[in-house]
Amino acid sequence: MSDVLAVAEHRRGELRDVSFELVTAGAELAGDGNLHLAIIGGDVDAFAEELSLDGVDTIHTVAEGDEFNHDVYVQAVAALYEELAPTYVLMGNTVNGLDYAPAVAESLDIPLVTDAIGLENDGGLVVTREMYASKVESTVEVDADNAAVTIRSAEWEPTEAAGEPAIEAFDFELDESRVRSRVTGFEEVGGGDVDITDADVLVSVGRGIEEEENLELVQNLADALGATLSSSRPIVDNGWLPKDRQVGQSGKVVTPKFYIAVGISGAVQHVAGMKGAENIVAINTDPDAPIFDIADYGIVGDLFDVVPELIEQFE
Ligand code: FAD
Q: Is residue 285, in this structure, part of any structural domain at all?
């Protein structure tokens, strides 16, 4: 039996999906033990209400600041750990998580395992991770009583069922002298306020599109479907779309209802970012393209013939 402390994540007033996935992973790992969920910063009361989910025993709110802050999170998680003495601490393997999780582990003097895709607690913690761009799966047996782990987004189903956890404001005194940075504002980079991780339908374009001016064709398909345009990395490397449209290992992890891959081969680094889509449709001239191995629907054909036909049908 192990108690688990999971740390929720939010940005600009909204909980991130990984918070709901952390509840699932945390409840699994805790088994008969307690799952504590920490909410640090932002509208903690509203977040606590939203995160009153099945499997959570206690929510601990820390009303410090509006947004993520490295020093506040490290101090708050360390203080919660001292107070609650959980066996394991779970955080998201996200930009924020990777920012503060190592500092948490260091300050608590416990090991950190990052990017977990599976967790087992059988008299000790066993973590499954992928290595070498998802080509190899490794099993890490943690040789310590306590550990911190970051979990990969979209590997656990989000918990949706309501629960009745206790909600407690954590009595926490921030050491201001150790807060060395503050978020003063946000500026969107590139693609405006499009967040491909929120889209239900993504039309994703790859190198098969050949020229920048041909992107309009794929954009028209996205418009006909009310979908959002995303891409593989070469499109971003060419400067044809902003970085925040890139799906994959060095881009974003997406889990839309429909993912339509147009002229994308299905390299492991791309698949790492979209394999969690509910339905995958692939359009590719090469019947042996690896994308067809994971596609639910495949169209072997030239995108310059297939896409105009699809637009006409959808319109
Ligand atoms: P290609 O592999 O060149 O595939 C183009 C496809 O289009 C081919 O299958 C071809 O048959 C098809 N095609 C050509 N013409 C047509 C046509 N007329 N009609 C229909 N189909 C056609 N990649 C990512 O996408 N995201 C990442 O985050 C990412 N991170 C990486 C990180 C590292 C460390 C490394 C080393 C690589 C990374 N990559 C990433 C790159 C990745 O390895 C691939 O090079 C990339 O995904 C290939 O993109 P693509 O499928 O668009 O291009």
A: yes
Q: State the average pLDDT over residues 54-61.
A: 98
Nearest atom in ligand 1 to the alpha carbon of residue 207 is: 52
Ligand 1 contact, 275 CB (< 6 A): no
Q: Is residue 230 part of a domain?
A: yes
| 3-state secondary structure at position 263 | coil
Specify whether the backbone of 66 is left (phi greater than 0), alpha (psi in -120 to 50) or beta. alpha
Domain end position, chosen among 178, 204, 226 = 178
ipTM value: 0.99
Give residue-wise pLDDT tens across range 286-299. Answer: 999 999 999 999 99
What is the model's pLDDT at position 136?
A: 86
Residue span of the structural domain in which 50 resides: 4-178
In the block, residue with structure tokens 């506040």: 72
Q: For residue 111, what are the CA distances in angstroms to 81, 92, 108, 146, 222?
A: 14, 16, 9, 7, 45
Q: Is the dihedral of CA 88, 92, 93, 99 positive or negative?
A: negative
Q: Is the CB of 263 under 6 A from ligand 1?
A: yes
Nearest atom of ligand 1 to the alpha carbon of 265: 9
Count of domains observed in the chain: 2
